[in-house]
Structures are given as structure tokens and as C-alpha cells.
Amino acid sequence: MSDSTPFVLILYYSRSGATADMARQIAAGVESITGVDARLRTVPPVSTTCEAVDPEIPEEGAVYADLEDLRHCSALALGSPTRFGNMAAPLKYFLDTTSSLWMNGALIDKPACAFTSTSSLHGGQESTLLTMLIPLLHHGMVYAGIPYNETALLSTQTGGTPYGASHVAGARSDRSVDEHERALCFAQGKRLARLARALHKMRQEEKA
């Protein structure tokens, strides 16, 4: 990855692996666009036990995000399983540490999207996606959902919304991301990368 190449930060929290799988599909969509890279990052869990300390590097999967990942990204895809119709606490905890970026306007005019996974079909996917975009709007980001020219939106029987990609994991969280859900993740990553490339160029021209 070149330091000068715009990148999409795919920032997620995953407990059972479904959200992580979606993140990888979004990354594939991002990297299908020439001139844009994907950077996968996750966040550590939070604990009610103050003494609980996780290792600095996860045993597997993406490394933990820091504020510099957000500061320098050209776009953001934010992913979380649903917790009572909202994002999971670890992701919310990380976003609550981004006040310095907000004060400096570091994310203004950068495109963003959200994605989520639930155990049940009507388990709060859309409310989760809508509430996830609130901090992104406070940061001045440009929200990008999934338009209906993506035909998988019309044929899916499980996940997939115009507000962002989604997945139904099943009561035991063991249902794999299906064909339509994967297609929508890929499409969302591809759209985000196209917007990232265009808006990155616009910001560079404004600085010149």
C-alpha cells in the first residue's frame, strides 16, 4: 500500500465472525476499484472489570484501529453486530474517543457507510444502521447507502437494506453470509471506493 494511495478504512467489531466476513467482502469491493486500497481494522472488547486487559495485537484477524487510521483514511465503512437496535459497545466506545478529529474537521467531506449483522430477520438491522450514521454525520462525513440499481436488494430474502449491507446470522449465529448478502457487501465497498477516489481528488485540488 502506497502512502499516497487513498484508502478506505473498514472498521468493525465482530463476536461470532459474521461482521468480520462482511468486512472482508466490502474490502474486496473496495479493491476492485483501481487506485484505492482497503485497510481492515477492528476494536477490542470492553469489560465491566476494570482490571481486564487484552493484548495489544489480536490473536487473529485485523489489528486494532487507532485515531491515525481514521485521520488519514479517504473513506470509512463502519460495521457492527446489532445490540438492541444499536451498535455494539466496543465500537461506540472507540467512536467516543474521536473528539480530537471532530474538533479538527479531519473527516469532513469523506464518504462513509455502515454494515451490520443480526441473529433474527427483524432484529433491528435498519435502526442499527441509522443510529450508526449519527456520529458520522456529526463528523461531517458524506453517507452512502446502497441504491436500488443493485438488484440483490430486490431479490434478497435475508439481509440487505438501502441504508447499508446487512446479514442474518441465525439464532445460533452460525449462518454464513449468503450470495445476495455478499453481493451487497461487495457493491457497497465498490461504491464507497469510487466516491473515496472522487472526493479525495476534490480535496487535493482544493488544497493546491
TrEMBL record:
It comes from the Bacteria. InterPro entries: Flavodoxin/NO_synth, Flavodoxin_CS, Flavoprotein-like_sf, Flavoprotein_WrbA-like, FMN_Rdtase-like_dom. Keywords: Flavoprotein, FMN. GO terms for cellular component: membrane. The keyword Flavoprotein applies. The keyword Flavoprotein applies. Its cofactor is FMN. One of its GO terms (molecular function) is electron transfer activity. Residues 8-193 form the Flavodoxin-like domain. Signal peptide: none annotated. NCBIfam families: flav_wrbA, PRK03767.1. Belongs to the WrbA family. This is NAD(P)H:quinone oxidoreductase. It comes from Vreelandella andesensis.
